[in-house]
Design brief:
By secondary structure, the chain is α/β, with parallel strands linked by helices. It has seven helices and twelve strands. The chain has an eight-stranded mixed beta sheet, with helices on both faces. β7, α5 and β8 form a beta-alpha-beta unit.
């Protein structure tokens, strides 16, 4: 109901915006440049451009959530649950594959820089891939994988991502959500819970462990620029339960360490890829910063 109401409100907003004029037209002088930007479009863009872009982004994200609802049952995909949602600002969305209130295993994924409601479809797909891999493991245990976009992620790699306040401000909400998964439990058994972070999302998970008690059993980090602490044993999970991977050509970890790495007697700016951090290093045959979730690479099979 919340999703439907938000979608209707955004559609009303879009309906009130005048049609976008043509941006370019032929140069009436017939000289270079061959086309010129129309003054009418410039005025329209100044008044409505940012508003329309924001509304279009919200609609894209809401459609991605609805598409996930519609895919239930396809190739065995379980029912989806919308656990949190808002179209305000850059948006919020918490989407689960499978019922977390009864699942034997829960994974709660935090996306990183540039994540917003408009891009939620890609993050949902990542957790669909993780669900398929976990559901295909031996045994009859049930699985719920959750995309948690419950914070204002930095929207610019250069201007926002170097700063920690996005992680520090969002970490308490992440801890609350993890505790809430216990409160909403409808079966007697305790689940096995894993926190998964990518990029700046790993920084938020580290901040959650630093600020409070991270209510998980394992932590999986991918492409981490640092988690604000310098050792795996500061992540609130048992020894040996922090897992990390860094792909060849992923420049984010080494660039990000100077803003988000931990520091202690053993060295400054420590990140999970450093041996002294003490994480289990997972193999990956992907390259760059964004392919850790592909279905075929070693990182996915691991």
């Amino acid at each position: 109901m919340v999703l439907a109401e938000a979608k209707a409100q955004v559609q009303l907003e879009l309906d009130k915006i005048p049609a976008e004029p043509a941006k370019y037209s032929a140069n009436p002088n017939g000289s270079y440049p061959a086309v010129i930007q129309n003054a009418g479009w410039t005025k329209w863009n100044e008044k409505y451009g940012a508003q329309k872009a924001r509304a279009d982004s919200s609609m894209k994200g809401m459609q991605a959530i609805e598409d996930r609802f519609d895919s239930t049952g396809i190739k065995g995909l379980p029912e989806a649950y919308l656990l949190g949602f808002s179209a305000e600002g850059t948006g919020r969305a918490v989407v689960a594959n499978g019922n977390p209130d009864t699942a034997d295993h829960q994974a709660v994924y935090v996306p990183g820089t540039t994540s917003n409601l408009g891009s939620i479809g890609g993050d949902i797909d990542r957790m669909v891939n993780v669900w398929r891999a976990a559901d295909g493991s031996p045994g009859d245990d049930s699985v719920s994988t959750i995309t948690w976009l419950g914070y204002d992620a930095p929207q610019s790699i250069a201007q926002d991502a170097p700063f920690s306040h996005y992680a520090n401000d969002g970490a308490p909400a992440y801890n609350q959500f993890l505790d809430g998964l216990d409160a909403s439990r409808t079966v007697d058994s305790d689940p096995h819970r894993t926190a998964i972070g990518h990029s700046y999302g790993t920084t938020l998970i580290g901040s959650a462990a630093r600020q409070g008690d991270l209510n998980v059993d394992d932590v999986v980090l991918a492409g981490s620029p640092g988690v604000q602490v310098s050792k795996a044993d500061q992540m609130d999970v048992p020894k040996g339960h922090v897992w990390n991977q860094e792909a060849d050509g992923d420049v984010v970890p080494d660039l990000g360490r100077f803003g988000h790495g931990g520091t202690d007697w053993d060295g400054p700016w420590t990140i999970p890829s450093d041996e002294r951090f003490g994480a289990n290093q997972m193999g990956t045959d992907t390259e760059g910063h964004s392919d850790y979730w592909n279905e075929k690479p070693l990182s996915f099979r691991t």
